[in-house]
Design brief:
107 residues, alpha/beta, 7-stranded mixed beta sheet, 7 strands
């Protein structure tokens, strides 16, 4: 497995990258909070699953829904997904993530 990396200084920068790279009309995306990193993996070779881009920042997010406002570049935890003009991230904290373990080991 091959992993490329894109590191950001803040969680909001990760959210900004993902919000701008998301397909149109998709305003809800998962992120992982795992071993001191907030991250998302983008498959670079979707057909084989051999290569991934890890987008990450050091930090942690509690599990839940986060609303991200691109204009102010800020996020806040919310209870529901309500607005089409905002991007939402569902933070998950897995017990084990084998792809993340490999990626973190190589950092």
């Amino acid at each position: 497995m091959h992993i490329e990396y894109e590191e950001f200084a803040t969680i909001d920068e990760v959210f900004m990258f993902l919000a701008s790279a998301a397909p149109p009309m998709k305003n809800t995306m998962p992120v992982g909070s795992y071993k001191g990193y907030v991250m998302s993996f983008i498959p670079l070779s979707p057909s084989t699953g051999e290569s991934y881009l890890m987008i990450y920042a050091k930090g942690e997010l509690a599990p839940g829904i986060y609303e991200f406002d691109l204009a102010t570049m800020s996020h806040k935890k919310v209870e529901t997904i309500e607005r089409a003009d905002k991007s939402y991230f569902v933070s998950l904290t897995p017990t084990r993530n084998t792809i993340a373990d490999i990626a973190i080991e190589k950092l």
